[in-house]
């Protein structure tokens, strides 16, 4: 029996939270870059988004009710919205967050998501503020610099070992001609 692995390497289609109208969300984002249900006060979220935009972070915030399962649906929704609303999209549910950005690395987004999660229902303002604060905080560790230092150290160690090995080698002496002649006669 032949097994086909083609389906394993095919990307899955985006799975959005149930009852999600992407067009309505995009229309709601047009006025203040915040899309939330009628029960959510958009004014505080809009002020957080305006502050982020003033600092050069093109942010859009979407709040969905409940916690869709699986939580990857939030990232899928952020990705779909990000195709029409360029910049960074933050989708918040009661306990989870999903993001997409065309200018911020996935590492920084995930790091900012971590502080926005598990705030509980009705705390989307706190979650958005925590997300923005984490993104605006400069990273204290430069992973590029650490990688360069480690690679330079590794090269130095390898070069040092090479030179130590070369110094410890006995000087090679040429073979006496009598041995060379004998080996030629044996053949």
Query: Which term fits the overall shape?
Result: elongated
Structural class: alpha/beta
Count the beta strands. 4
Helix/strand order: HEHEHEEHHHH
**If helices are DSSP runs of H or I spanning 4 or more residues, what is the number of helices?**
7
Taking Cα atoms only, what radius of gyration do you get, to the nearest Å? 30 Å
| Average pLDDT over all residues | 86
Total tally of structural domains: 2
Please give the largest β-sheet.
Answer: 4 strands, mixed
| Quaternary | single chain
At the first level of CATH, the class of the largest domain is Alpha Beta
Order of strands across the widest beta sheet?
1-2-3-4
The CATH topology of the largest domain turns out to be: Diaminopimelate Epimerase, Chain A, domain 1
Distance between the termini: 58 Å
Summarize the structure.
The chain is α/β, with parallel strands linked by helices and about 190 residues long.
Top keywords for this entry?
single chain, 187 residues, alpha/beta, Diaminopimelate Epimerase, Chain A, domain 1, 2 domains, four-stranded mixed β-sheet, 7 helices
What can you tell me about this protein's structure?
- It is a single chain.
- With 187 residues, the protein is of the alpha/beta class.
- The chain folds into 2 domains: 22-136, Diaminopimelate Epimerase, Chain A, domain 1 (Roll); 143-186.
- The protein contains 7 helices and 4 strands.
- It has helices spanning 22-32, 42-54, 72-84, 106-116, 124-136, 143-168, 177-186; strands spanning 34-35, 59-63, 88-92, 97-101.
- A 4-stranded mixed β-sheet has the order 1-2-3-4, with helices on both faces.
- Strand 3 and strand 4 form a beta hairpin.
- Helix 2 packs parallel to helix 5 (124-136) and helix 4 runs antiparallel to helix 5 (124-136).
- The chain is elongated and about 100 Å long.
- The two termini are 58 Å apart.
- 26% of the residues are buried.
- The model has no long low-confidence stretch (mean pLDDT 86).
- The chain crosses the membrane at residues 143-164.
- Keywords: Membrane, Transmembrane, Transmembrane helix.
- It holds the Pfam family Rv1476.
């Amino acid at each position: 029996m032949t097994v086909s692995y083609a389906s394993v390497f095919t990307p899955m289609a985006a799975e959005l939270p149930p009852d999600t109208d992407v067009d309505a969300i995009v229309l709601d984002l047009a006025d203040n870059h915040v899309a939330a249900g009628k029960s959510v006060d958009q004014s505080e979220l809009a002020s957080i988004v305006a502050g982020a935009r003033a600092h050069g972070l093109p942010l859009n915030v979407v709040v969905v009710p409940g916690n869709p399962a699986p939580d990857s649906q939030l990232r899928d929704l952020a990705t779909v919205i990000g195709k029409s609303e360029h910049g960074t999209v933050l989708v918040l549910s009661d306990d989870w967050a999903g993001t997409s950005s065309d200018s911020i690395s996935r590492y920084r987004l995930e790091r900012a998501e971590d502080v926005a999660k598990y705030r509980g229902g009705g705390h989307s303002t706190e979650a958005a503020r925590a997300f923005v604060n984490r993104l605006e905080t400069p990273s204290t560790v430069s992973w590029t610099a650490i990688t360069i230092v480690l690679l330079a150290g590794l090269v130095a160690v390898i070069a040092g070992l090479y030179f130590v090995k070369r110094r410890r080698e006995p000087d090679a002496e040429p073979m006496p001609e009598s041995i060379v002649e004998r080996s030629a006669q044996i053949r």
